[in-house]
Amino acid sequence: MTDTLDPDLLRRMHAYWRAANYLTVGQIYLRDNPMLEEPLKREHIKHRLLGHWGTTTGLNFIYTHLNRAIVQRDLNMIYVMGPGHGGPGPVAHTYLEGSYTEIYPRIDRSKAGMRELFRQFSWPYGIPSHVAPETPGSIHEGGELGYSLSHAFGAAYDNPELIVACVVGDGEAETGALATSWHSNKFLNPVTDGAVLPILHLNGFKIANPTVLARIGDDDLRDLMRGYGYDPHFVEGHEPEAMHQAFAAALDTCLDAIRQIQKEAREESADQAKLPRWPMIVFRSPKGWTGPKVVDGKPVEGTWRAHQVPLSKFETDEHVKQLEDWMKSYNAHELFDEEGRFREEFASLAPTGQRRMGMNPHANGGLLLKPLHMPHFAQFAEDVKTPGDHKAEMTRVLGRFLREVMRQNMRSFRVFGPDETASNRLEAIYEASPKTWLAEYEAVDEDLAPDGRVMEVLSEHQCQGWLEGYLLTGRHGFFSCYEAFIHIIDSMFNQHAKWLKTTRKMEWRPPIASLNYLLSSHVWHQDHNGFSHQDPGFIDHVANKKSEIVRIYLPPDTNCLLSVADHCLRSRHYVNVIIAGKQPDWQWLDIESAVRHCTAGAGIWEWAGRGGDDPDVVMACAGDAPTVEVLAAVMLLREYVPDIRIRVVNVVDLMSLETPDEHPHGMDDDRFDDLFTKDKPVVFAFHGYPGIVHKLTYRRHNHDNFHVRGYKEEGTTTTALDMMVLNNMDRFQLALDVINRVPRFAGEREKATQRYWADIQRHKLYVSEHGWDLPEVRDWQWKAEDAN
C-alpha cells in the first residue's frame, strides 16, 4: 500500500507538529528565554502554572493534518475544538500560520514576539488557557464541555462549501448534550448544507479518571458510531511516523467520501435529499503525547497525570532540568531561525490568506453578516379600536410575521425549538418552510422535508448549540421554548453572553446577529401542565449578565410583541429575551401606540387610570397576564372606592427600570419619577420573581414605596386565575394591596379584608366544583369609565 505522505512531506509535517508542541509547552511554562538560548533557570518559569497539556498535542497533530488537506484540496474549512482547555494549541498554530500576528501585531514572529506569546498565556490581563474569543479561528468557547458538535453542525447549515472539522474530546463525549448531538447528521442536507467531520479524540483520561468511550473496545465503539449513522475510521498508536501516515490516509478517505456524498446528492434537488452515512475519524493517541514519560517515579504520558501541568514543582533543579530536556526534545533550533522566525520550509506548509483556519471568515461571522430582509410588521397587526375590545393569540400572530421573515431570507434565517413550534402556536412558519428531517418517514408525518428550515429536536441543548453555531458564522435565528425549560441551557447562555461581552471590545470581530429567545407556554397560562412547567426564573438569570449584552421584553399584547420582535431581529450582538403567552388574551394598543410604547420601554396608560398628575396609587404591571390582573383590579377599585385616583404604568422593557449608568435602556431619575412618582405607593404586578424588580429599582427615589407581587413558587395544574391566587397576584389581592397602602383609605381596610377573603373563598369553592374560573372572571372585559 502506498503511503499517503511522501518522505519529504512527512518530515516537514512532523517538524510543523513539533513546532506547535514546542510553542504549547512554552506557553504553559515560560515567561522568558523562549528559545532556550541560555540554560533554563527557575526565574524563566512562571510562578503560576496554569493550562492543560494532555489533550493539546493531539489537537496540534490534527491541525497540522487539516492544513495539509486544505492546501492540497483548496478546502474552505474551520476547526472546532471540543476539549475544553486545549487553548495553547490553536494559539500556537495561528501564530505559526501568521494569523495571530496579523490580529495582534505586538506578538510578532521573532524571539521577542515568542516571549510575549509565552508570557501572555494564563497571565493576568493576558489570554485564557482555553480556546476563547481571543483565539483567531474560534467559534467555540472551551470553558464548558458538551457543545462542540452542535456548534459545528450549526456552522455547516446553509454553508454548502464549508467543512467543519470538529474534535470531540472523550471526556466531553460523556456529557448528555454531546451524546445527543451525534444525531445532528439527521438534519444536515448534503445539497444545501456543508459537511461536518467529527474526530473523536480518545486519549483515555479525564482529570483523574478513565473515559468511558476509551474503555469499551473498538468493536462496541464502532457499533455505537454506526448506530448514530456514521462510518468510523480508526487511527491509533503512538509512533509518530506511522500515526502521520495512518491519519493522513483516514483524512483523505473521509474527505473523498464527503465530496462523493455531496456530488451525488447535488445531482438531485434539495427536497429529494436522502440521509447519507457521513464519515468520521476515531483518533486514539496517548494523553500527553511527546511529553514527560515519568515524573518523580510515576508514569505521566498516557495517564491522567498528563491532563494539566505534568511538571509543577520547581523547587529543585531536577524538575527544571526535566522541563529543559522536554523542550529541547523538539529541536527548536531546527524549526526557528536565529531571530525566532519559523523556517520557511515548514511555514510554507500552511494555507494562505482566508484559507488559514485562523483567518477563515466563517469563524468570524460578523464579517459575513448581512441584514435580514424584513417585512413590515404593521401588516400583521391586530385591529385594536379601543383597549380590550377583543382577544387574540399573541404568538399565533407572531408566527405569521416570522413566516414572512423566513420567506424573505431562505438562506440566512432559521427557527429553532425543542418540538414546540406548533405548541407555541408559531406553526404558520411551516407555510414558508417545513421542519428539517432526513431520517425515515411515515404516513402520519406532517411538515417534514429534507430541505426544511425549521429546526426541531427534543433537546434544548441541541437547539441552543445549533443556533449559536449558526449565529457565530454570520446568520440569523430565533429560538422558541417553553419558559420553564429554557433553564436547561442556562450555562450555554452564560457562555454565549460571555462571548458577546468579550468580543464587543475586539475590533477585529465585528458584531454578529443577536440571539433571540421567545419564551411562551409561560408560568401564568398552563392549561394542563402543573408545577413542573412553572418557572419564570430565566429573567433573573439573564438580568445578571452585563448590561451591554442583555435585553428582556414583556410585551402586554400582540402589537407590542410584533414591535419587539421586529426590533430584536434587526439588532446586533445582544441576547434578547421575549416573554409572551400563547393563549387568547385581551389586546390593548393599536399598532402606532404599541410602537411608541415599546420605544419608550414603559409608559402611563392614561386610558386606564384616573386622577391625572396626583394619583393616590401607581399600579404597575410587566407581562401579559399581570397586565390583565392590574386592569381587572382597577375596575374593582373604581367600584370599591369611587373617588380613587389611579395611575397605570405598563413596563415592556424590563431593563428600563434600571438607571442609565447601569443599563443603556435605563430611564433617568426624572422620567422614572414622572412615571412612578417620588412618594406615592406603587403596587407592581410582575411576571416573574418579585425580587428582580426590587433589584433593578433599589436606587430610585420611591423604591421604599414599591410593593411587588409576582411568582413565589406556588403552582399546580389549575385555572389561570387560581395560579394568580396561589401566588397572591390576583385582582382581589391587588385591590386589597392598594387599599392597605393608601393612607386615606385606612377606614376601608377592615371591610376590604373581609371582602377579599369572601372573594377568595368563593373562587376556591367554584374552581374546585366546576374545574374552571368564575363566570365573572371568564367573561371579564375591560370597561372604560364612560362605559359604566
TrEMBL record:
Keyword Lyase carried by entry: yes
GO biological process, alphabetically ordered: carbohydrate metabolic process
Annotated ranges, domain Xylulose 5-phosphate/Fructose 6-phosphate phosphoketolase C-terminal: 582-782
Xref: InterPro entries: Phosphoketolase, THDP-binding, Transketo_C/PFOR_II, Xul5P/Fru6P_PKetolase, Xul5P/Fru6P_PKetolase_C, Xul5P/Fru6P_PKetolase_CS, Xul5P/Fru6P_PKetolase_N, Xul5P/Fru6P_PKetolase_ThDP_BS
Cofactor(s), by name: thiamine diphosphate
EC numbers on record: 4.1.2.-
GO terms for MF: aldehyde-lyase activity
Keywords: Lyase, Thiamine pyrophosphate
Domain of life: Bacteria
Enzyme class per UniProt: lyase
Domain Xylulose 5-phosphate/Fructose 6-phosphate phosphoketolase N-terminal: 6-367
Keyword Nucleotide-binding among record annotations: no
One Pfam entry name: XFP
Gene3D superfamilies the UniProt entry points to: 3.40.50.920, 3.40.50.970
NCBIfam families in alphabetical order: PRK05261.1-2, PRK05261.1-4, PRK05261.1-6
Family from the record: Belongs to the XFP family.
Name of protein: Probable phosphoketolase
